[in-house]
Each structure stands twice: as C-alpha cells, then as structure tokens.
Amino acid sequence: MQALKERILREGKNLGGGILKVDNFINHQVDPLLMDACGAELARRFAHVNPTRVLTAEISGIAPALTTAMHLGIPVVYARKSKPITMPNQVYLTIAPSHTKGQMVELIVSPEYLKPGERVLIIDDFLATGQTILGLVRLTEAAGATVVGIGTLIEKTFEGGRKALEHLGVPIESLAVITSMENGQIILAP
C-alpha cells in the first residue's frame, strides 16, 4: 500500500537490531486516516475468507485491527497483556516473546469473546519473527476457533515470520514489506 510505504520511508526510524520506530503514525500516535485506509485494504484482501471475528494483541495491533473489523462489519477482540478484575477466572492464556520489549509477555483472551466455531482473522502491526501471531493462533485454537487469515501493516522478511506461519495454510498479507534494515537503511519491496 503506497501511502503506508511512503510514511515508513519518510517518518520511520531504523533504531538498529531490526527495530523500526513508527511511533509517529502507528504505535504511539495513530494517524486515523492512514489506519482507516489500511483497514479498508486489509478488509478487501480478506473478505473472501469470511471471517467472523478479528483478533489482535494489545496494544499496537488495536488500531489496524479495529479499522479492518469496521470495514468487514465484524467485532474485534484484543488479547490483553494483563488480566483485569472484570475478566472471568478461566481464560485462554499463552506467552510470546515481545520484540520491542525484549521479554516474554502474556496474551490473555476471555472465552466470552472468542468462541468455538469462530472464523478468526488475525491482524497485527508487524510480522517479524511471527511469535506474537503464533501466540494468537494458540489462543484461537484453544477456543476451538479457526484461523482463516493473517494480515499485518508491516512485514520484515529478514526475520523469518512468514516462514514460521506458512504451515497454517492460510492467506498471509502485509501492506508494506521491508526486505532489509542493514546499515541504517529501510529497504522496501516494490
């Protein structure tokens, strides 16, 4: 998606170690018009899999997941990183490594909002190693639901996440694909 690629090249910052800072428009401050356009494009790409629910991880995945779900006309559920007192005692829980936090994080979903038989579209901000998305897959499977697609705003191909997810046999779509971040650069696929 050209508008996203242009923003990445103009405002993204390569912090080294595979970390791309996009806080100005995705991760801290959100550009709602850009997120709406991204959500519309992801919804277009995944309409054919007939999802009934969008699932993402707290917090950075919420904006693209929400706009995608809005364009599909379905609910969005986000996996929490801590269990609030309003959540039932029995939950779906897994752990996954956080690339930017440098530690393991919990991903928790209430069974009230992820039910058996749901057709789940996973949407996140990044596809890097694929470990957070695999955590969301585990939560989906624990609920007796089925993953029908995986969509991300930005994919970093050099971290191998797509390969880690291919065994799922579902469509995987990324709106901007970064092929290299060596020497302080940000190189996008055409």
Compile the SSE list and pairings.
Elements: H1 2-11, E1 13-16, E2 19-21, H2 23-27, H3 32-46, E3 53-57, H4 62-72, E4 76-79, E5 92-98, E6 103-109, E7 119-127, H5 131-142, E8 146-156, H6 161-165, E9 172-180, E10 187-188
List keywords for this structure.
six-stranded mixed sheet; 190 residues; alpha/beta; single chain; Rossmann fold; 32% strand
How would you summarize what this structure contains?
The protein has 190 residues and is an alpha/beta fold. 31% of the residues lie in helices and 32% in strands.
Explain what the structure shows.
The chain has 190 residues and is α/β, with parallel strands linked by helices. The protein has one domain (2-185): Rossmann fold (3-Layer(aba) Sandwich), CATH 3.40.50.2020. Helix content is 31%, strand content 32%. It is built from six helices and ten strands. It has helices at 2-11, 23-27, 32-46, 62-72, 131-142, 161-165, and strands spanning 13-16, 19-21, 53-57, 76-79, 92-98, 103-109, 119-127, 146-156, 172-180, 187-188. The strands form three sheets. It has a six-stranded mixed β-sheet with strand order 4-3-7-8-9-10, sandwiched between helices. It has a two-stranded antiparallel ribbon with strand order 1-2. The chain has a two-stranded antiparallel sheet with strand order 5-6. Helix 3 (32-46) crosses helix 4 (62-72). The longest helix has 15 residues, at 32-46. The protein starts with a helix and ends with a strand. The model has no long low-confidence stretch (mean pLDDT 95). This is Xanthine phosphoribosyltransferase. One of its GO terms (cellular component) is cytoplasm. It comes from Thermanaerothrix daxensis. Homodimer. It is found in: Cytoplasm.
